[in-house]
Design goal:
alpha/beta, 13 helices, single chain, five-stranded parallel sheet, eight-stranded mixed sheet
Length: 467
């Protein structure tokens, strides 16, 4: 039983209004917006010693895939002191940024911006690994236990908890045994690419798996490690299960899938249709920026000048079936989906750029019996991002970036981060702290309402009205 009794309750008699677990961009957004609400007490905990955002992929030249206005606060509160523009002003970079005419900023600068915010928010506490979240019945609050690197344990109470622990790297099943056994940095997830970049640049042959932005950036970076004459550096092989190396959907109307309007529509659909849509909409969130694809093409074009041959192979429509060690390298068995043919090849190193997925954090095991999981063991999340709980729990649990199955492809997208944080903040405060738009898209998702016709009932309201 995970309901604490009076004998085991925390001595802290003043619960926080909100405790956030994890300080990535999404919970940092909530912390920044909550900083402007003095009547709301908040604490945010993270195991890391300091803020960091995908450090393994912060290569020079890589840019954020959303405009700079999708910072931690601007889409919800453009007057906040924690905006990216105020960060530029604080670092005397406003004029250089203005003259650069950039809409998409370097990833390294986005990471530095977030660190600037996290270091200055008094509610953010690092070196605090949460080990348990329980419901303390006597205190009528959640008990959140956390531990520092030196082993010091602390416990705080919270009326409301917001999970923002992020996602974990996904490794295809055929590669898992190799990754576990490898200690040389030659089989890795792209999340660790920067750490092993120099070693991979010295390899004879590197295979990159995954058709998304990370896979494209790793492949491009490795191609750039090759000498101008195409002789030095690794042969780069880029594989993907998708039928093409496709650009991410970035049309103005297409981007309206990342609006509150689409979330409301998506939530009202039957579960099987929602899951089908997430699979079909891969180009909305798993494609590659057109600029990166163009850069790869340009690099390969350069290598054909004077009759040269690029030391690279691009292979879409390919699935890895099996992988095994072979002396100093590895052998991969693959299948081409359209030709239905299998083939094998040898490679010196493997980078699995196969994305990330939400998982249940271990610290939630102490509360798991009181969470109303769906039939697939996932959170059931309402329109305000509340997780369904046992009626005995009078506190509220929220979640960020673990609700693609209920809210659609916008869940992991930074565009909606400040809007979602404002939605949670309003719910946590019990009143409207920051107004959020009811309509943000020109597109009507779902059947339109028709004018009334005598004797004919009107069409139902758009599914977006469902909370």
């Amino acid at each position: 039983m995970t309901v604490l009794t009076e004998s085991t309750q925390s001595n802290n008699s003043s619960p926080y209004d909100v405790v956030g677990v994890g300080i990535g961009p999404f919970n940092l957004s909530l912390a920044a917006l909550a900083d402007g609400v003095p009547e709301l007490s908040a604490l945010f905990l993270d195991a890391k010693p300091a803020f960091s955002w995908h450090p393994g992929l912060l290569m020079e030249g890589t840019v954020l895939q959303v405009p700079f206005l999708a910072d931690l606060v601007t889409m919800a509160d453009p007057t906040s002191p924690w905006s990216y523009l105020n960060y530029l002003r604080s670092h005397d970079r406003m004029f250089p940024f203005f003259f650069s005419e950039r809409f998409h900023i370097p990833r390294r600068e986005y990471d530095h911006y977030c660190r600037w915010v996290a270091e200055r928010l008094p509610s953010c506490r690092f070196d605090a690994r949460v080990t348990a979240v329980e419901w303390d019945e006597a205190a009528d609050a959640f008990a959140v236990t956390h531990r520092s690197a030196d082993g010091t344990a602390s416990r705080v109470l919270a009326r409301q908890v917001v999970l923002g622990v992020g996602t974990e790297p996904v490794i295809p099943e055929p590669l898992r045994a190799l990754l576990t056994a490898d200690h040389t940095g030659r089989v890795l997830h792209s999340a660790d690419y920067r750490t092993h970049r120099a070693r991979l640049a010295d390899a004879d042959d590197v295979t990159v798996i995954g058709a998304g932005q990370s896979g494209a950036e790793v492949a491009l970076d490795l191609i750039r490690q090759q000498d101008g004459d195409g002789q030095g550096g690794p042969f780069v092989r880029w594989l993907a299960r998708t039928p093409a190396f496709a650009p991410m959907e970035y049309s103005k109307i297409g981007l309206e899938h990342f609006t509150p309007d689409y979330i409301r529509y998506f939530r009202a659909l039957p579960e099987d249709r929602r899951e089908q849509l997430v699979r079909e909409q891969w180009q909305l969130y798993k494609g590659v920026s057109e600029e990166t694809l163009g850069d790869i093409h340009d690099e390969l074009y350069e290598r054909t000048i004077g009759g040269g041959q690029p030391r690279a192979g691009l292979h879409p429509g390919v699935e890895v079936l099996a992988a095994g060690a072979d002396g100093e390298g590895y052998v991969l068995t693959c299948r081409h989906s359209q030709q239905q043919t299998e083939f094998t090849f040898r490679t010196s190193a493997i980078v699995s750029a196969t994305g990330y997925a939400a998982s249940r954090p271990a610290f939630l095991n102490t509360l798991a019996d009181l969470v109303d999981w769906d039939h697939k063991g996932r959170y059931q999340v309402d329109g305000d991002y509340r997780v369904a709980l046992d009626p005995r729990v009078r506190g509220t649990l929220y979640v960020q970036n673990a609700e693609t199955h209920t809210h659609g492809v916008g869940a992991p997208d930074l565009t909606l981060g400040a809007w979602r944080a404002a939605t949670i903040l309003n719910a946590a405060a019990g009143h409207t702290v920051l107004p959020v738009p009811e309509r943000a898209a020109w597109t009507t998702f779902g059947a339109p309402q028709s004018p009334a016709t005598p004797g004919v009932p009107p069409l139902p309201a758009t599914a977006g009205t469902v909370r």
